[in-house]
Amino acid sequence: MTIPLSLVNVTLEYPDGGSTIKALDAVNLTAGAGEFLSLVGPSGSGKSSLLAVAATLVTPSSGLVLVDGQDATPLGSRERTALRRDTVGIIFQQPNLLPSLTAVEQLLIGEHLRGKPLRAARLRAAELLDVVGLAGELNKRPHQLSGGQRQRVNIARALMGSPRVLLVDEPTAALDMERSEAIVRLLRRVTDEFATATLMVTHDTEFLPLTDSVVTMRDGRLGAPVRNAA
Ligand SMILES: Nc1ncnc2c1ncn2[C@@H]1O[C@H](COP(=O)(O)OP(=O)(O)OP(=O)(O)O)[C@@H](O)[C@H]1O
């Protein structure tokens, strides 16, 4: 079995006036199947850049980005899109659900666009909505769901393609404490159940113990992972 996510000596530079800024500076990171990592660090330290590179949305200036064993860095945009679609699930802070679609349709739209048969997809969508605790809400539209429920739809949608890697950017930023904890617990359960390598950017230090290890970014550099007590 290949390692789901491995970043090797990844540097990402952006032009900054006459010089450059290193958003990522020789970053090394490995996330195994079923491993839940949290990524913390001050604003501007490079967390979003790291997620964007791991998602193959941004190609680094140097280094390797191995997703499911395949280096994404030499790939063209079409191949990267295919690799991402087959291996990566992305969960942003705001669910970005389409207002006119029901919960189950939110999960089907991507499959529909990919030309996948909808009958099997519909079954899988219903199963995943059950996994995230929304079995009774399949036909509700976003405005009929709470913020926490919308984030659950977002998580279920990210699982539709059976990703090996889940990249999660501040999933609880718009939620109160209780709902935030429920969402992080759900991500823990999903990581265990689907054996994803899950990398979550968060500012909620109280939920760090629910993850396996904490990695800290500072000025584009990544500290060694600190394992939580089992
Ligand atoms: N597209 C870009 N062009 C130029 N500089 C950028 C770009 N994106 C990020 N940067 C710079 O790279 C550095 C890292 O930014 P990044 O957004 O990754 O940090 P962050 O830790 O996610 O911050 P926050 O917690 O505020 O979201 C910052 O100095 C930022 O200004």
Automatic annotation (TrEMBL):
Alphabetized GO MF terms? ATP binding; ATP hydrolysis activity; transmembrane transporter activity
What keywords is this UniProt entry annotated with?
A: ATP-binding, Nucleotide-binding, Transport
Q: Which domain of life is it from?
A: Bacteria
Tagged with keyword Oxidoreductase: no
Kindly give the PROSITE patterns that the UniProt entry links to this protein.
ABC_TRANSPORTER_1, ABC_TRANSPORTER_2
UniProt keyword annotation of DNA-binding present: no
One Pfam family per UniProt: ABC_tran
Q: Name the Gene3D superfamilies on file.
A: P-loop containing nucleotide triphosphate hydrolases (3.40.50.300)
GO CC annotations on file: plasma membrane
- Check the record and name the InterPro entries matching this protein: AAA+_ATPase, ABC_transporter-like_ATP-bd, ABC_transporter-like_CS, ABC_transpr_LolD-like, MacB-like_ATP-bd, P-loop_NTPase
Q: Which PANTHER family match?
A: ABC TRANSPORTER RELATED (PTHR24220:SF685), IMPORT ATP-BINDING PROTEIN (PTHR24220)
Q: What is this protein called?
A: Putative ABC transport system ATP-binding protein
Species, as recorded: Arthrobacter cupressi
